[in-house]
Write a structure and sequence with these properties.
Blueprint: H1 17-28, H2 40-45
């Protein structure tokens, strides 16, 4: 069984807004099998 590569954070995990922005960029540039290995940002922009 494959672990979730996108990960989760514990409930009481303290994270700075700057770190949230970095994680958001990483997640939006991570290729997904469900999008035929395109990134979510590519799908959103229609490319």
């Amino acid at each position: 069984m494959q672990k979730n590569r996108l990960g989760n954070f514990p409930t009481r995990f303290i994270i700075e807004p700057k770190e949230v922005a970095q994680i958001e960029i990483w997640m939006n540039n991570y290729p997904r099998k469900m999008f035929n290995y395109s990134t979510p940002i590519q799908v959103y922009l229609g490319g």
